[in-house]
Amino acid sequence: MTFTIKDVAKLANVSIATVSRIINNQTGYSEKTKKKVLEAIEELGYEPNAVARGLINKRTHTIGVLFPKLSSTLVTDLLSGIEKATHDAGSSVIVCHTESNGEKTMKYLQLLNEKRIDGIIFTSAPLLEEYYQYIKKMNVPMVLLSTETYAHPVPYVKVNDRHAAYTATQFLINKGHEKIGMISGNKDDIISGKPRIDGYISALQDHNLPIDEKKIIYNRGFSFYDGMDSLKTLLKQAPDLTAVFAASDELAIGAISSAYQLGIKVPDELSIIGYDNLSIAEMSVPPLTTVAQPLTEMGEMAANMLFEMLNSDKLIESRIMPHKIVERKSVRDKEV
Amino acid sequence: MTFTIKDVAKLANVSIATVSRIINNQTGYSEKTKKKVLEAIEELGYEPNAVARGLINKRTHTIGVLFPKLSSTLVTDLLSGIEKATHDAGSSVIVCHTESNGEKTMKYLQLLNEKRIDGIIFTSAPLLEEYYQYIKKMNVPMVLLSTETYAHPVPYVKVNDRHAAYTATQFLINKGHEKIGMISGNKDDIISGKPRIDGYISALQDHNLPIDEKKIIYNRGFSFYDGMDSLKTLLKQAPDLTAVFAASDELAIGAISSAYQLGIKVPDELSIIGYDNLSIAEMSVPPLTTVAQPLTEMGEMAANMLFEMLNSDKLIESRIMPHKIVERKSVRDKEV
DNA sequence: TTGTATGCGTTATCAG
DNA sequence: CTGATAACGCATACAA
């Protein structure tokens, strides 16, 4: 049995209006009736119906989060932060797994629209024009997480990929390395592919080190297996490398596995630095030195920004989150 | 601007009742009016309000999923399966991160109740009496995932932990190992702690191998760091071990890291088998042999069971999912 | 085949 | 301080 405000009103001998006032702690009732009503609520175990509330308030206290993939700790860390901030703000999160599929994404957006969610966090994927237009029509705030768009004024939170890649490469250079390769993601990926390559190249240039196409491997994605394959071909093309910057931790760990198979000692013969600082980074052998994104904080930040927009509906600034090197054991000084 | 059924009705020159009938493709209207209405819907870009529907139909097409932690690929794999099946069934999932905290869990349950979700999947944690009672009062179906309860008739989906642990241990035995240690989780954990220990012991007994308390390490949890520490003390207590069964992949990989630090070669000097088959298992060096749980399928199964209960509301049977050994490189024959 | 009217559980606007 | 009552957007019983 589930009770309504009516049942409470009847039991407390007041009108539903009064009950409503008390539930929403507004003004306009005596302490005495308040007590009476509260007791009735307690006795019945009444809990308000958020669906009815949503209908009238036009606020469902639910947000939608779109992920291109779910099975990666990168995503979970983001989700974890989003969920925390969202729950702290008294809302819930609906997860949507788009698989980077346009049709699926549109279906999800439609679903979210029908559910009248309050806002959207769009993560780790390019915001296609089609998506943007649809969300604009939905008329709910949106923030981009771990991605950004140049085409429209949508606030985002991410690290500066170019800068972070620069930092990683520079770290290697500062350790005395000069022959530094890169295992990159997809260079056609404007968000996280190209910028990291650019950062790597910039760092090399700024330190008067030569750029050599043979020292860069381009992959489709950022996966472990890409990393395994990449190291092999990389070393074939440029056998004298002493260090490698991998554009993701998975790529880096794939490279480490490959190195192990090839009998190359990390970091003694080859230094490897990753990107992300996922939980797997500390679990690898040797533990992976990497440039960390504050993923959980990023998730929290994105959610908080969304709620800010929801409550004030003014424009909001994007956030470039700080990255930092987490030094573990996969990089060492180049002996001189 | 967001339109309602009223706007559609007006534009199509029919009553809202007719529009409603057409949207829900019921009978009782001419092809001609149907066309008219559909055109109006198209023109306005009308999309039904699921909140209003939820209020009247008493079905929100939303389910709640409770996780004790979010940041682990174990959880993501489960979630991934749940999300898929749920979306295929036309519903959405709200994720709740309880942190194994009783108070938080109750808060989440209350939230889910207020939101009038259709059902609950409760994962990877003991179902406390308090939770059960509350959910029972909520009067929505629930299924347990990767956990179970003896106290109440709640359907669950999980592997048989005891059996799976037995299989893992037996695998080691069949490879010729006789001195086999175990790095276990929490022995007070009735769901995944104790049963795996029991399975290990059973396998030893059935093969006439001695049980030795010194060969078992008990941990608080199943984490990487627990695994690192455990291997060290384990080898101190029982230096002649040739193989170890770890009760989770994280424990196993922690053990591998430890072995590496100690200069012990895996699998040449020590074989290690894990439990779960997370994505990290294939990424370790050497790749981890482990007993696999079909996590994604388990998630799908749980969701499907929930929808079955929702649609027929008869009792449903629990499922013991099959486990299997995934042989990689961390276990080898004991040389004779 | 179609339309009117009522209710789902709230909130909010009125009077009183 | 309190209570009717009209929305919110939709589904449906009942009339027509």
TrEMBL record, chains A, B:
Transport recorded as keyword: no
Entries under SUPFAM superfamilies matching the protein: lambda repressor-like DNA-binding domains, Periplasmic binding protein-like I
GO molecular function, one term: transcription cis-regulatory region binding
UniProt superkingdom: Bacteria
Annotated signal sequence range: none
UniProt xrefs under InterPro entries: HTH_LacI, LacI/GalR-like_sensor, Lambda_DNA-bd_dom_sf, Peripla_BP_I
Classification via SMART domains: HTH_LACI (SM00354)
Domain called HTH lacI-type: residue spans: 3-57
Record keywords: DNA-binding, Transcription, Transcription regulation
PROSITE patterns linked to this entry: HTH_LACI_1, HTH_LACI_2
Protein name, as recorded: Catabolite control protein A
